[in-house]
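Handout, section B. The chain below has 515 residues.
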Amino acid sequence: MLAKLYSATVAGITAIPVTIEADVTANKIPSMTIVGLPDSSIKESQSRIEAALGNCGLKLPNERITVNLAPGDIRKEGTGFDLPIALAILQANGFLPAASQERFMVLGELGLDGSLRPIRGALPIAIRARQEGYDGLIVPQQNVHEAAVVNRLKVYGATTLMQVMDFFNGKHTALVPTEIDTRAEFYAHQEQFDLDFADVKGQENVKRAFEVAAAGGHNLIMVGPPGAGKSMMARRLPSILPLLSLAESLETTQIHSVAGQLKGGTGLITERPFRSPHHTVSQVALVGGGANPMPGEISLAHNGVLFLDELPEFQRAALEVLRQPLEDRKITVTRAKYSIEYPCNFMFVASMNPCPCGYYNHPTKRCQCTPGQIHRYLNKISGPLLDRIDIQVEITPLSFDELSRTRPGESSAAIRERVVRARRLQEERYHEHPGIHCNAQMTPALMREFATPAPQDTAMLREAINRLQLSARAYDRILRLARTIADLEGAEQIQTHHLAEAVGYRNLDRESWGE
């Protein structure tokens, strides 16, 4: 007897519908074969299904069972096919009515006792189920909150195989659809930040640099000795960025869903992600891929912040692969068996010591490094990567008077208000240029149109570059930064003091650094 059921697999962050066909044929030698490009985890499902059915008082038929996952030219992976394969076999063996599952998509991993365990990618699968016109989606209970954020789709959470069987056998009370007011839940959890810039004492110039970076979407690197507060401030950057839109939240949640990074009972992600991988992270873990393709850290930071602490300690090869994603804001992972694209539109923030011992330019501690050692240390970061970092700011340790100050600093909410105003100006300015949303993304043509200083300011900028011995690559970065600083003031034209502040954010470009 032939049975048919519906499920899905995930490629990148896109779900692909899969039809599961089960055929039970009389044969003297019982066997079970799964075809349709299954991975090893799907091939292992036979043992889980057999044990789960046995512990539920059922058993596989002593006949030849053939399971086909169609279309057969698309690679399938994951343990989410356990439940639909088991149901298709039960239907083919007469335990379930033939027409009961026609408009339902089913996913779930089976425990040996017949319980259901969570899967990856429930949200993109729910989105595809609605697009394809399915009446409902059945997932493990741990995934129901995640999938139920998709409106106009009945999402059922199940805890056991027997519950799903009862539901398909006509006991409609066995499973009840979960309903969530997506917009209400999303907006109820916004602006709930655990970290705030009000906790940061002193460092006003660095906080200003973070404000400029957030306002223009600029990448930033901090250079300073250990304990100066680099990580502390970086972790507070999401609190001054514009709040996530519902569309951004949905896209971000899909990536974390595919990666299995959502906690049970979690719906939409309401805060901008902050990812801070250790410096031992591999190239694959950073950009994504692997034998079973997964999003990397740069995609998990999509619509948020990627922070690399102690930047020179990272593998050179891992850092170099960041260059294209920083420009294209997407990453294409190509291997022999697959090619997958992940979005990765993130703000890049890094920190590093000024020298191997960490105390170059320290106000009280003496640096033990020679100029050659300092240059070799800085050269661990390639010029092309440094080219993609607009703001380079030095941090010095606080004095005792600044540390003992009890008055809180300016709150993240107050800073974010100014950032949002500047971002709105940029959205209006670039609304006719698809793909350009902030000043950091300006093309040379847009810079000529919107970031050209007056003739007298051009002369001042030329003198500053020559006097400070700034490299040629600093010129465009300074103009982009000056445009953002002007936007924070609401100024239509770039002025002298905007350029002067922007020049101060290019410390690593000075030829005299380390001498």
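Note. The radius of gyration is 28 Å. Compare this with the example in section A.
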